[in-house]
Amino acid sequence: MIDLKEYEVWFVTGSQDLYGEETLKQVAAHSQEIAKSFDNTAQIPVRVVYKPTVKSPEEIYNVCRDANSSKNCIGIVAWMHTFSPAKMWIGGLKILHKPLLHLHTQFNRDIPWDSIDMDFMNLNQSAHGDREFGFIMSRMRINRKVVVGHWQDEEVLSQIGSWTRVAAGWADWQGARFVRFGDNMRYVAVTDGDKVEAEMRFGYSVNTHGIGDLVQVINAISDAEIDALTAEYEATYAVVDSLRKGGAQYNSLREAAKIELGMTAFLKDGNYKGYTDTFEDLHGMAQLPGIPSQRLMGKGYGFGGEGDWKTAALVRAMKVMGSGLKGGNSFMEDYTYHFNPSNPLVLGSHMLEICESIALGKPNCEIHPLGIGGKADPVRLVFNVGGGAALNASIVDMGNRFRLLVNEVEAVAPKEALPKLPVARVLWKPYPDMKTGCAAWILAGGAHHTCYSQNLSSEQLSDFAEMAGIEFVLIGKDTNIPQFKNELRWSEAYYQTHKQY
Question: Where are the alpha helices (DSSP H) in 299-433?
Fold first, then answer.
């Protein structure tokens, strides 16, 4: 469902006509070599497309205009090989609405001590050409990523590749559609928000369909389709005996498959990239979608429980960003705490809907009472999640702005069997410590719903917030509460005066 090779970034080199034809030929040759190298490296997951050197306001404007209108272009990597007077860039930068990465590099890694002359100096002027370019973007208050280092350095390639993943997530949001099956969970504040403002800021739309619209599609699913999917369940997961063919609850497995097939058809027909549902609004459905939501997330769809459309959209974006990387991204909820002083932990889970992409080993396919919603016992995947570095991310509507809040965590593999907990679950230690991490999250107004990621970094999510033009708040190893409170106060003051559009 997600193929990052469908996207491309344009490699644009700045110069000017002052240097003459021979120098500009060398500039073009160097730029082509760098772009080709970027396009061939595995560290950059999207295509890198060389664009001819821009040397005038007209050429700069045209390449920015063309980038805006290109469906596949998700951003520009700009580099000033020589000096490129920055007033030439004003017109193009004013209209550019694709993300921009400023690569501060030079073609040669080392100074050729024995042969360097003024011809070499005139050709290789990135050290001050990029500073001129940097000034005009700072003067125009343009958000961008700056990467510094030689273009063949592994760290530089990793940073560029990381940024292109973020740009892909942002591009995926533009024109995206998310559907809410039913409304928000009644009286809940943080999962609600301004969908008009979100469409203006983020580029995606959120609209509601009554459950009856979905049920109509579910009821049209054929027995043959259900047979095929239940067989896939049995081949893929450790299905408990009662759900297997001939078992006492086999019909519940078939009902879950029918729901999954209906939801899949509805999402495909409506060109939706994610959805929400709520246990309070299930009219006509036999059970709350458990395994259907887990598997649909596994295929790349965004999901949010109880009508949480902001988290559904964030899950989708983070799945795009992490596509092809080891580990996964999932809807998550801080569910309960282990306050043992020697080993404090958070147990993350949800009633049903944790994505199979973060599972440790083969999940069990089980059925258990839900105890909420008043429907039949739902089928779900039950599994543990492994240890390692991870993070939780949440988007909240602060009224005058959106805030993207991230807490870096260290996941811990469960040491106990948890035999009576019939849900997928993960244990983690928040940074910098349990008390500080949880207090900071609450002070920042973070939601109880998040996207849990095993393969993305806080830097990437900071870049994502920059692209969206929203506030970014990090809770990490160096967080302390007095400083954190000050940062929130400063941010509040900034956004009282900051022009959003």
Answer: 309-321
Q: What are phi and psi of 245, to 5 degrees?
A: -55, 125
Of 460, 452, 446, whose CA–CA distance to 403 is shortest? 446
Residue with tokens 């045209």: 62
pTM of the model: 0.96
- Using CA atoms, how far residue 275 sits from 187, 258, 332, 424, in Å, is 20, 17, 15, 20
- The Cα 475–Cα 479 span in angstroms is 6
Q: Which residues are 103's β-sheet partners? A: 147
Going by the DSSP 8-state scheme, the letter that residue 67 receives in this structure is H
What Å distances lie between residue 224 and 13, 155, 219, 257, 261, CA to CA?
Answer: 57, 51, 13, 11, 11
User: Distance between CA 309 and CA 191 in Å, rounded?
Assistant: 7
What is the DSSP annotation of 91-106? HHHHH--S-EEEEE--
Gap between the Cα atoms of 317 and 440, Å rounded: 24
pLDDT in tens, 276-333: 999 888 899 999 999 999 999 999 999 999 999 999 999 999 999 999 999 999 999 9
The burial class, CB within 10 Å (0-12 / 13-18 / 19+), for 277 is buried
* Cα 462 to Cα 199, 225, 286, 341, distances in angstroms: 20, 43, 41, 32
Maximum separation of any 2 CA atoms in the chain, in Å: 85
Q: 321: how many CB neighbours lie within 10 A of its CB?
A: 29
Q: What is the DSSP letter of 54?
A: B
Classify residue 448 by its DSSP letter: S
Strand partners, 407: 392, 475
Q: What is the pLDDT of residues 333-355, one digit of tens each?
A: 999 999 999 999 999 999 899 99
